[in-house]
Amino acid sequence: MKIHATSYFKDLQKRNDFFRDWIQKIERLNGVTYKSTEIETSLGKTIVWPFNGERTDLKTLVIFPGFRTSCFFWDLDNGLASLKKKFRIFLIDTNGQPNCSDGNTPAIRSNDYGIWAKEVIDKLGIEKTSIAGASFGGLVCAKLALVAPEKIEKIILMNPGCLQTFSFSWKNMYYNFLPLISPTKNNIRTFLKTVSFIPDITCLLQKH
User: pTM to 2 decimals?
Assistant: First the structure.
């Protein structure tokens, strides 16, 4: 697999401190404990967060997050609570995104993210699984389906990215670039409220 680009944090210590503090806050709010596992893939170190990882008697669900997000977005406000009772879940911190996995990224037009996803599933010892992805995570799921359909039992796509042309309207471009150009808390909240979350979730943002 060819590495197309590599992203990185300017200060690794600040990254580690931020993620440690953020994850601890989510643990307190959700009343759970998260423990990661690390695997080596063609894109470097990939961090995986399992729930019921040892429960091979349960059906498996592998989840890929959206672009510019961490897998913990899936469990904000205990979003996975009901699924944790029924499934063996693996949250994947996709390489190349702002998380603790390595920042290597393949060419987006290739199927390499599908090859990488198959590597992750194989190294987790999973024969066949349901997969779910939101936005960019949906694209990863679709590429996995092209590369290794035999690994997939069911596929759940939530607003999958790259299936249609990205809107280049002034309004959409403004809110997407706002947190990149000026990453203040207010601008990040504005981006999340306008682009990412439904109205019920934005109420939670205001409370926190």
Answer: 0.79
Domain identity same for 142 and 186: no
Are the C-beta atoms of residues 180 and 195 closer than 8 Å to each other?
A: no
Answer whether 88's CB lies under 8 Å from 52's CB. yes
Asked whether residue 104 falls in the same domain as residue 196, the answer is: no
Domain residue limits at 66: 5-164
Question: How many Å apart are CA 96 and CA 134, to the nearest integer?
Answer: 16
Q: For 106-155, what is each residue's pLDDT tens digit?
A: 998 899 999 999 999 999 999 999 999 988 999 999 999 999 999 999 99
Nearest to 113 by CA among 7, 42, 37, 65: 42
- Total domains in the chain come to 2
CA separation, residue 101 to residues 55, 133, 175 (Å): 25, 17, 26
Q: How far apart are CA 26 and CA 73, in angstroms?
A: 10
